[in-house]
Fold:
Amino acid sequence: MDNVWYSISRLVFELHPARVKEIANKIEKMNSLTDLKTIKPFTDSKIDENLVEDFIKCWKQMPEVSPLQISSAMQSAVATASILETNQQIEIVWTGPDTGLVSSRNTEQVLYELIALASDRIFLVSYVSYNVERLIDRLSKASEEGIKISILLEPSQGIWRKT
Structure:
């Protein structure tokens, strides 16, 4: 799937947003594709040369794409990457006793929030679960709203039966 849009995304992923903006502004002012290799941020940085070459090759294969379109695509790609980075948060959810060392959230509350946010399906995996009546209630409500639910649980030792 090597095309100019994909190559722009790969290139932008490797660069600081300020550098992308600088390059995009210079590309926008270009007269032709041959001016591209003279753009200083391409020549003085530690950008992967293979990514730059791939970008140039892909753009040459799509000569109808203007410098303004390339510049806009670069700026859109960096803005999208920034939004994705902002929206991807990692929080520690701890099921054990409070250690006082790291801030963490209660597992039960996190599960309820995730269930409430689900829009299509839930796949719940748990080591051992106790006192899950409220959780089952929330999952049942989600199921009634059309959410597909799959659960993988390991039963507590007392539940195993010899046959």
About this structure: The chain has seven helices and four strands.
